[in-house]
Amino acid sequence: MEPFEIQILGCGSALPTTRHNASSQVVRIGNRWLMIDCGEGTQQQLRKQHISFSQISSVFISHLHGDHCFGLIGMISSFALLGRSAPLHIFADKLLRQIMKPQLDFFCKGISYELIFHDIDATIHSIIYEDNVITVETIPQEHRLPCCGFIIREKPKKRHIIGEMMEYYKVPEYLRKGLKEGNDFITPDGITIPNNRLTREADPSRSYAYCSDTLPCPQNIKYLKGVDLLYHEATFAESEKVRAKETYHTTARQAAELAQEANVKQLVIGHFSSRYTNDDMLLKEAREIFQTAEKADENRIFKI
Amino acid sequence: MEPFEIQILGCGSALPTTRHNASSQVVRIGNRWLMIDCGEGTQQQLRKQHISFSQISSVFISHLHGDHCFGLIGMISSFALLGRSAPLHIFADKLLRQIMKPQLDFFCKGISYELIFHDIDATIHSIIYEDNVITVETIPQEHRLPCCGFIIREKPKKRHIIGEMMEYYKVPEYLRKGLKEGNDFITPDGITIPNNRLTREADPSRSYAYCSDTLPCPQNIKYLKGVDLLYHEATFAESEKVRAKETYHTTARQAAELAQEANVKQLVIGHFSSRYTNDDMLLKEAREIFQTAEKADENRIFKI
Asked: Å from B91 to nearest chain A CA?
């Protein structure tokens, strides 16, 4: 199977710490490299993690808090300095392009590539990106301003041709595409060979969900149901539950409860408050509910 | 003497590298902490170097290239999140406040402290800041857009009272301030005691100059003459002399020549191009002219 990996560039929250960078991650699906959120210092993190700048095709911004988007202008500028030619797609609240306009006009005048903004309506669940392999959908979050999560799903894949059967039944080349899609084969003698003798099961379609920053949103469980990997913010420990609610954030335990209810296959917690000098306590609280939970950290790669 | 120190937060140039951060440094004179330039990631560097956010009173921006100012918005936001109350002064080209306005209106609405922009005219040499201890002056640089260097000078200091002499001549307390300024003392019997018997020489007034980014500017030598420490950009090696000129930058050798001609006491080179994986070669070229030259590096502190 092609790689489907999430690489953490930053998993801290609003205030900088010596341990964590502001929110950003890259999701690699085959040769697609998507970025989710782009806090300050993201371009430096790309360098440190040896991710080629030119691979990033799209950036998805969950919401307009600085720790999720202040790295955009620097990254956009550097892409231009490096002579990028491929367009860069930015999916974000429509206010972002207004806010960034004077910056872009001044710092990025006449850049070498096209910057294409796509407006997100964070209040609704909808597919905002689609190509022949994946879809990206938004799910509304509950934060102090419009905020959405993202779910990236592989589309249903094609069945695998069984080479020996092609030879045995002398299936012409031009029919094989149809077999991958489930067609049966009818021999020149008029005998129907059922598809499942000619092909093997398609690979499963994998999925990844990103939820940050938000109150726990049980209403989104229907969308999260069974995803392979859920990255969920866990800004606070259970002892800060009141503060979490006041600031529209989630505790590690709440993130784990949501993951359990949604029956996701794996949970990664992130977006840790700067008040914690060690995130193990947050992980411990999550694991009390979701035993295999993992915690994000800069440089970590989670494979699906 | 009170500390007069330059602490390097970042000494890279436009593109991020794994070794250097974008331009920023703090200059500490006694209990004053001034920042010069504020590239992306500066607030994180402050954290890593354990510099208290609340100490920074003023930020001086040499010019409006992203690697010298993209860190402002994040730092301003974090200061607000931390409930700062003291005003923050930003000295920069007047365009900066226009460019930042939509960002500040959106991300920093109702912040807890006053943000005061002071417009710089980078084309002239002038004093832009003055208090009872220091002055900060601009010197015009030659770059691809308006750019200035900064010279921070301690004002002339007061002479030191010699305690035993105060007792010996029974100098009343209220006259001592005048002695520090050079007055003689006239005894009740009408005898004049010359100041130099009562006081010792004042400490020397120290000075620091920051020049980045620029072509070598021999016309500024008159301002740089004899400064204690000159930080000068040395983006390129001598082999890239043509490129340096084209991009309005300086080579390490040129920086050293300028330092030598200006007879500065110490030279620190910085703003290294991302093309170099090791800056020792730049330092070597500078030292061929200015033997005691040093190179900037994140975390290094240069004491005057």
From this structure: 18
Distance, CA of A171 to CA of A157 (rounded, Å): 21
Other CB atoms within 10 Å distance of the CB of residue B102: 16
- Residues in B closer than 8 angstroms to A41, CB to CB, are 40-41, 44
Q: What is the pLDDT of residues B122-141, one digit of tens each?
A: 999 999 999 999 999 999 99
pLDDT in tens, B179-216: 999 999 999 999 999 999 999 999 999 999 999 899 99
Predicted TM-score of the model (pTM) = 0.94
From the CB of residue A158, how many other CB atoms can be counted at a distance below 10 Å?
Answer: 14
- A106 CB near a chain B CB, below 8 Å? yes
ipTM above 0.90, yes or no: yes
Considering only CA atoms, give the Rg of chain B: 22
Cβ neighbors of A152 (< 8 A, separation 6 or more) are A27, A29, A34, A134, A135, A136, A207, A208, A209, A210
- Identify the residue among A42, A54, A70 best suited for mutation to test binding to B, counting B beta carbons within 10 A and taking the highest: A70
Q: How far is A32 from chain B (nearest CA, A)?
A: 23
Residue extents of the structural domains in chain A? 4-157+203-303, 160-200
CA distance B150 to B148: 7
Alpha carbon distance B146, B263 (integer Å): 26
Q: Nearest Cβ partner of A17 from B47, B74, B77?
A: B47
When CB atoms are compared, the residue of A14, A16, A99 closest to B106 is A99
Spatial CB neighbours of A162, under 8 Å, sequence gap ≥ 6:
A198, A199, A200
Is residue B67 among the annotated active site residues?
A: yes
- What is the C-alpha to C-alpha distance for residues B12 and A120, in angstroms, rounded to an integer? 35
pLDDT greater than 90 at residue A1: no
For the domain bounded by A4-157+203-303, which CATH number is listed?
3.60.15.10
Cβ–Cβ contact B43 with A under 8 A: yes
Q: How far apart are CA B92 and CA B63, in angstroms?
A: 7
DSSP-H helix ranges across A154-301:
163-169, 176-180, 195-198, 221-224, 241-246, 252-261, 280-287
Contacts of B106 in chain A (CB under 8 A): 64, 95, 99
